[in-house]
Specification:
The chain is an alpha/beta fold. It has two domains: 170 residues, Rossmann fold (3-Layer(aba) Sandwich), CATH 3.40.50.2000; 190 residues, Glycogen Phosphorylase B (Rossmann fold, 3-Layer(aba) Sandwich). The protein contains 17 helices and 13 strands. The strands form two sheets. The protein has a seven-stranded parallel beta sheet with strand order 3-2-1-4-5-6-7, sandwiched between helices. Strand 2, helix 2 and strand 3 form a beta-alpha-beta unit. The model has no long low-confidence stretch (mean pLDDT 90).
């Protein structure tokens, strides 16, 4: 029986890995999948030795606080993988965790794949050589990534992004509003996506709520949709609502349903990350924001060597979407940017045209391409 080990450390990795597992199962029906994964992976038959939430920590200061626990899990996982010797190991994103693991496994003769190029195009470009030494193959989501590795000799396959395959090119906003039981007269509708990790909510929840309060003063008929991915993140957001005495505002919390919220919205406020790409593929005009600890921000600023942070801007090669980060991510500035965008028909149309171009570029039948690349490394 073919045994494939996978580590996916957060919600976006869980989605990528789940699609890949389904594609691999179509070609290898008896294959066994194990390692660290989330609920989507488990629903398609993955054996999670640890949940993906174990690794869902972002920012250098936050990682330092959880360093001992994460290191202990990685050592235990390495020991088990060396003992069981899977046919191939796939590290899905989470480069600080997975590249070390891949290097150890590769040196022990286990074939390794890294799925999702680390953001060497945004910061820490010096890692290109380390990545090449750690894995046998890299699966790249974006077309500008393979050329970055040409000098290393690493086998890099551009596979596109699975969200571009799953999401329709044309978005039906009325249908999305119907699915969420929203009144057709509700206008404007703002989608607020403060992040998928608990650590993100700790920094972002109050800022998003204060922004909604300011927008509600300008748009008394507005509705705010807040999709949250877990009970833990919902608890953090609800606690912030009560603390700020904002629970009476028209803020509708959703358990999941991020895609419906983005499809239904006139404008979205999105924490930087994969959700910004999701918003672009759903043609949602947006403002991108992010806050983290001051220490993490200072460290990341020093390693950053291009002006954009949000994926839609990186793909566009320009500031297509407004970015308000760290000290600029104040409720006042965010509300002002969203207020300006919601009534700017020309700006929203410009974004939509660019988002359609991105969607077509990234639609590559990703899961099947990735599965073929993995299978090519399996023993004959």
């Amino acid at each position: 029986m073919t045994r494939i080990a996978i580590v996916a450390g957060e919600a976006s990795g869980d989605l990528l890995a789940a699609h890949l597992i389904e594609a691999l199962k179509r070609r290898l029906p008896s294959a066994d999948f194990c390692g660290i994964g989330g609920p989507k992976m488990q629903r398609v038959g993955f054996d999670a030795w640890w949940p993906s939430e174990t690794l869902a920590v972002r920012g250098y200061a936050e990682v330092l606080r959880h360093y001992r626990e994460i290191t202990r899990v990685r050592r235990q996982l390495l020991s088990r993988l060396l003992d069981e010797k899977p046919d191939v190991f796939i590290g899905v994103d989470a480069p600080d965790f997975n590249l070390w693991l891949e290097r150890k496994l590769k040196s022990a003769g286990i074939r390794t794949v890294h799925y999702v190029s680390p953001s060497v195009w945004a910061w820490r470009g010096g890692r290109v050589g380390k990545i090449a030494r750690s894995c046998d193959r890299l699966l790249a989501l974006f077309p500008f990534e393979p050329p970055l590795y040409e000098k290393t000799g690493l086998d890099v396959t551009y596979v596109g992004h699975p969200l571009a395959d799953v999401l329709p090119l044309e978005v039906n906003r009325s249908a999305a509003r119907d699915r969420l039981n929203l009144s057709p007269a509700s206008s404007p509708i703002f989608a607020l996506l403060p992040g998928s990790r608990q650590s993100e909510l700790q920094y972002m929840a109050e800022t998003f709520i204060r922004t909604a309060v300011l927008l509600h003063e300008q748009h008394p008929d507005a509705l705010f949709l807040v999709p949250l991915v877990s009970r833990e993140t919902r608890d953090i957001f609800e606690t912030a609502l009560w603390k700020l005495e904002a629970q009476a505002r028209p803020i509708k919390l959703l358990f999941g349903h991020a895609q419906d919220a983005l499809a239904a919205a006139d404008v979205a406020l999105v924490a930087s990350g994969t959700a910004t790409l999701e918003a672009a593929l759903l043609k949602a005009p947006m403002v991108i924001t992010y806050r983290m600890s001051s220490l993490s921000w200072q460290l990341m600023k020093r390693m950053r060597y291009q002006p954009w942070v949000g994926l839609p801007n990186i793909l566009a090669g320009r500031f297509l979407v407004p970015e308000l980060l760290q000290n600029d991510a104040t409720p006042e500035k965010l509300a002002e940017a969203l207020h300006a965008l919601v009534d700017d028909v020309a700006r929203k149309a410009e974004m939509e045209v660019a988002f359609h171009d991105m969607h077509r570029l990234l639609r590559q039948n990703t899961a099947e391409k990735a599965a073929a690349a993995v299978i090519s490394l399996l023993p004959a």
